[in-house]
Amino acid sequence: MAVKQTAGRDALGEFAPKFAELNDEVLFGQVWSREDKLSLRDRSLVTVVALMAQGLTDSSFRYHLTAAKNNGITRTEIAEILTHAAFYAGWPKAWAAFRMAKEVWAEDAAEDAKAKHQSEMVFPIGASNDGFAQYFSGKSYLAPLSTAQVGIYNVTFEPGCRNNWHIHHAARGGGQILVCVAGRGYYQEWGKAPQELHPGDVVNIPPEVKHWHGAAPDCWFSHLAVEVPGEGTSNE
C-alpha cells in the first residue's frame, strides 16, 4: 500500500496549494496507489530510471532510491538497473546515480558481508556485544558456546574492530586461548609486532601478558576465546 504523502503540503501548501494537492493526492495518492496495474516495486524502478535519465540526482532522487529499496529492489538489482540505463541515459548521469545509490544501500552491503562471514563458519556470530562495547573500538558480537567447566565464546569483529590493550591476571593458571575460525585478524603482544591470524591458527596467551586482538581493516574476523581455568583471575 502506498504511503500517504504530505511533502507537497509541507513544502508548498501555502505558496502553491494546487501543486501541493496534485503532488500529494494525485501523483502519490492516486497514481502510486494503483498497485493492481503496476506494483510499487515496478513504479519505483520506472521512477528511478526516469529521474536518472534527466540527471536529477538531488534529494528527490534519494527519496525515490530509498523508496525503491523499501519496495523490494535489492542492492544487486539497483546496480544492474543503473548499469543498463547508463547506455541510454548517459555515463556521467550513471556515475552520479551510483554515488547516491551506494549510500542508500550501504547498510545492505554490510549485512551481505556479515551473512557471507557467517556462511564461512559453523559457529553463530551471536548478538551484539553491547555489554563489553566500551572495551572495543568498533562493533563486535558474542556467542557463548560453553559456560560450564571451561568458558568458550565465539567473538566476531567487524572490519577494523579490535579490543583494547588488556591483561588476564591470575595467581595460578589462567590466561586465554584463541582459536581462529573465520576471516582474517591480528594479535599483538606489548613490545612485539602484530601477528596476522587466519582460520586454524591458535594463540596461547599466558597470564600477565599485555595484548590485543581484532579484525583486519578490510575483513570480518571470528575466533573462539577459551578461558583457561585459574585461581585469583581477573581482567584489566
Automatic annotation (TrEMBL):
<feature type="domain" description="Carboxymuconolactone decarboxylase-like">
    <location>
        <begin position="17"/>
        <end position="103"/>
    </location>
</feature>
<dbReference type="InterPro" id="IPR003779">
    <property type="entry name" value="CMD-like"/>
</dbReference>
<dbReference type="Pfam" id="PF02627">
    <property type="entry name" value="CMD"/>
</dbReference>
<protein>
    <submittedName>
        <fullName>Carboxymuconolactone decarboxylase family protein</fullName>
    </submittedName>
</protein>
<dbReference type="Pfam" id="PF07883">
    <property type="entry name" value="Cupin_2"/>
</dbReference>
<feature type="domain" description="Cupin type-2">
    <location>
        <begin position="155"/>
        <end position="215"/>
    </location>
</feature>
<dbReference type="InterPro" id="IPR047263">
    <property type="entry name" value="HNL-like_cupin"/>
</dbReference>
<dbReference type="InterPro" id="IPR011051">
    <property type="entry name" value="RmlC_Cupin_sf"/>
</dbReference>
<dbReference type="InterPro" id="IPR013096">
    <property type="entry name" value="Cupin_2"/>
</dbReference>
<dbReference type="InterPro" id="IPR029032">
    <property type="entry name" value="AhpD-like"/>
</dbReference>
<dbReference type="InterPro" id="IPR014710">
    <property type="entry name" value="RmlC-like_jellyroll"/>
</dbReference>
